[in-house]
Amino acid sequence: MRISAFFPPVLLLSSLCYTCATKAQAQFPDLPGKDAALKVCGSCHEPERATSLHQDRDGWDATMSAMAGRGMDIPDAQYKTVLDYLSKAFPGEAPKPLNINAAGAIDLETTFSLLRSQAALVIAYRDKHGKFKSLDDLKKIPGFDFSKLEDKKDRIAF
Ligand code: HEC
What we know:
The protein is an all-alpha fold. The protein folds into 2 domains: 3-89, no CATH class; 98-157. The protein is built from 9 helices and 2 strands, in the order αααααβααααβ. The protein has a two-stranded parallel ribbon. Bound molecules: heme C. Heme C (HEC) binds next to α3, α4 and α5.
């Protein structure tokens, strides 16, 4: 489909859709850059199309590049404002923490990318010594390579 044939009706529809605009206002959290985002992302389709996505900054950058490929034309400074807004307003799902005292082997392996043998060490130590109370307790497990958990320690709950 040629872009030139496609856009005029879309533009007309979105400018007529007053209730769409007010609905979008409500769904867009009040953060810096909101007005710019509503304006830019509402110029071809309903702006709340953005609210269907939750993704990290790289994801939003990719979406905005895709929109640029479809004809979105904004100055660099505004691109950054809108990107900042979308990344904050519709962030990716934060990974859920995993309770290290309740987790089974599979959860430990998948959440922390542990080898089976390493996950087994954690569970065996827990069975023997009771609940872990802190990260320091995890460092005491003989043969367990704590460095594997280092960059994921925010996800450990006790
Ligand atoms: C130049 C016109 C234009 C602008 C400006 C624009 N888009 Fe789009 N957008 C499109 C087109 C064309 C489609 C795909 C056709 C359709 O589904 O209607 C689309 C589709 C989407 C989709 C659906 C998923 C997909 O990839 O097909 C999302 C999400 C989206 N846009 C978000 C945004 C956001 C966020 C902004 C503001 C940063 C924005 N758009 C600005 C033209 C635009």
